[in-house]
Design a protein that fits this description.
By secondary structure, the chain is mainly β. It has strands at about 10, 20, 40-45, 50-55, 55-60, 65-70, 75-80, 85-90, 90-100, 105-110, 115-120, 130-135, 140-155, 165-175, 180-185, 190-195, 195-200, 205-210, 215-225, 225-235, 235-245, 250-255, 265-270.
């Protein structure tokens, strides 16, 4: 798992397959209801507000083997289009296929559940990598795209996808991948989105994230009158910290991966 985030990337599977948001039936085009200005309520993340720092990918596809050197932990699989067993958080089998000189396709499963697929295409000039994904790991499928810019070439003779890439942009994403909700009652803090949820005691011990296949835990503390910190972990290791604050009907979030110091900043609007 690349990182755990409140909305834009609740669970990022190997090679950037993203599942996120809330699968309720909120009509996001309807007039927003009156609110008390707290974090409690339904939210829609604004893709255009997303800003990435230090979010770099390092892939090599050569001699029939795909390696993700930037994944936590790094791994490699045979890129022959066949399903194979992998030991990854939240994923136990995957398939990688070299479609042509500029295209790679991957798919993921956990047990009998299909988690989704992604198709990676390198531009003709070799400087841009685009991922189009279909994430079926939540209650509602999420489709979208991501774009990366090359920062270093891959080894001589390797596939065009090989090399180092910096996250550049999020393209279109279905609403199911952007909706989420919070609710605070007393010292009980609840978060939910597209089949993933938890209720934690503010300032209390970490609790499991329901709907997570990768044994993720989260602890929440209140850091101000209308601000909170979510700390995600697995087996005692901190994965990411999300700082969330609300000003009226705008939510601001900063998610920092504790393992590689990559940062995502974004805002969301109350629905």
């Amino acid at each position: 798992m690349k990182k755990m985030m409140t909305a834009l990337a609740a669970i990022a599977l190997p090679m950037g397959l993203v599942a996120c948001g809330d699968a309720d039936d909120t009509d996001v085009t309807a007039e927003a209801p009156a609110s008390d200005g707290t974090i409690s309520g339904e939210w829609m993340a604004d893709v255009d507000s997303a800003q990435f720092e230090n979010d770099n990918r390092d892939y090599v596809l050569s001699n029939g083997t795909f390696s993700c050197n930037s994944c936590n932990p790094p791994y490699e699989v045979t890129a022959n289009g066949e399903w194979q067993t992998v030991d990854r958080p939240g994923v136990d089998s995957m398939m990688v296929e070299q479609v042509d000189d500029n295209t790679v396709r991957a798919a993921f499963r956990y047990g009998d559940k299909d988690l989704g697929s992604s198709t990676w295409t390198v531009s003709d000039d070799g400087q841009t990598l685009t991922s189009e994904f279909n994430d079926t790991s939540g209650d509602e499928a999420v489709t979208g795209s991501e774009t990366f810019t090359r920062t270093a070439d891959g080894p001589d003779g390797s596939h065009a996808m090989s090399g180092q890439w910096a996250f550049s942009d999020i393209g279109d994403m279905s609403d199911a991948g952007l909706r989420f909700s919070y609710n605070v009652e007393g010292d009980q803090f609840t978060s939910s989105g597209n089949g993933s949820s938890y209720t934690a005691t503010l300032g209390g011990d970490p609790v499991p994230v329901e709907g997570s296949n990768s044994n993720v835990m989260v602890a929440v503390e209140q850091t101000g009158d209308n601000s909170y910190r979510e700390t995600y972990s697995r087996d005692g290791e901190a994965l990411s910290v999300v700082e969330v604050s609300v000003d009226g009907d705008t939510l601001s979030a900063v998610s920092t991966d504790q393992r590689d110091d990559s940062v995502l900043r974004y805002t969301a609007q109350r629905q």
